[in-house]
Amino acid sequence: MNKAEAVFISLLLTGLTVSIITGSVQGASIEPMTRWTNYTFMGYDSFYDKDVVAYEAESTAMLAVNVKNDFGSRINVSVVGISFDWLKPDDGWYNSTQTSNENPTTLEDGDTVYFTVNFTTPSVDVAHTVPHDYTIYVEFVNATDSSADVKRWQTRRADLYGDSGYFVVFSVDQVKSRQMDQMITGITAPVWNSTSGVLLWRRAMNESNTADYYYALGDFIEARVHYGKALRLIDEAFTHEESKGEALEEAQTNAVDAEAKVAEAWANFANGLSNMWTLIGVALVIFALGYIIRGLTALRRTPALQ
Predict the structure, then answer these.
(1) Which of 117, 141, 170 is the last residue of a domain?
(2) pLDDT tens column, 53-62
(3) Spatial CA neighbour of 106 closest among 141, 82, 55, 145
(4) Which ranges constitute the DSSP H helices of 26-171?
(5) How far apart are CA 254 and CA 128, in angstroms?
(6) How do residues 132-175 score in pLDDT, each as one tens digit?
């Protein structure tokens, strides 16, 4: 092979590669923002040590998929679905019922449509204890060309944005444990007015930490038991604090009443003292008048004796 032939083959391969890339980019695309709804839990899970979206076993899962037509012409979308690693090839995909081969959805160039995919999650025997990957895909044809081949556009979980956590299936005990843990996390401790309230709260936090330990190990039954104990202790702490608060409020009310009565007694004493001094004053005036009258009488009697 001479140099000219090598350059020609190289250019040919380069052109082929460019055409393949261009063809793969053009077509119906899936917007990277997908959204799971009606889930049991979403976020970091200590048992899986991953960010997950969780549904209870044998419940209904729901995913909204954003499909945008950037094909350059009108297309007919026949299938929008999702596939998991537990599905066998013969099982197919979980598909949206909004479109089908018999009744496809037409998208004009530039249109965007949200498709909802609903499916029943498997039992814990099939899909429990491990996180699952999944792939979202779209099948469509060029609506302006009756002889056009069916095209497929697909995206794996890791390439999605938004709700792109691993998919997991929770057992009943795992669901209850996670729900109780979220309840405990959402409770804020008040400023305790009693030693009993503080002790009950600390015991509750110890039970919650123990439950976290069992949950991370995958012992969801034991975790559920300890989360339940933690919630009961928290309830006792608040009940005790409420009773303590009512007793304290009553004591404060009694103290205010007592102070009011003392003030009233002092007022009565002062009023009585004032009345007493008034009477003493009147008595002194009467005494003085009597003394004056007696003196005048004595003066009148003196000339008669002479």
Answers:
(1) 170
(2) 999 999 999 9
(3) 141
(4) 124-127
(5) 61
(6) 999 998 999 988 887 778 888 888 898 887 788 999 999 999 99
Regarding whether 159 and 187 lie in a shared domain, the answer is: no
| Separation between Cα atoms, residue 63 and residue 33, nearest integer Å | 11
Provide the percentage of residues in the chain whose pLDDT is more than 70.
Answer: 68
**Rounded alpha-carbon distances, angstroms, from residue 210 to 135, 147, 219, 227:** 37, 64, 11, 8
For residues 29 and 27, what is the distance between their CA atoms, to the nearest angstrom? Answer: 6
**Nearest Cα residue to 113 out of 85, 169, 159, 75:** 75
Residue 190: domain span? 174-253
User: How confident is the model over 77-128, as pLDDT tens digits?
Assistant: 999 999 998 876 566 789 999 999 899 999 999 899 999 999 999 988 877 8
Beta bridge partners of 29: 68
Check residue 149 and report its DSSP letter. Answer: P
131-170: buried (b, 16+ CB within 10 Å) or exposed (e) per residue?
bbebebbbbbbbbeeeeeeebebebebeebeebbbbbbbb
Same domain, 98 and 148: yes
Domain boundary among 170, 194, 225: 170
Q: What angle do CA 58, 62, 66 make, to 5 degrees?
A: 155
d(CA 92, CA 84): 10
More confident residue, 204 or 30: 204
Residues paired with 27 in a beta bridge: 70
Residue 118: CB partners within 8 Å, gap ≥ 6? 60, 61, 62, 94, 96, 97
C-alpha torsion 191→192→193→194, nearest 10? -170
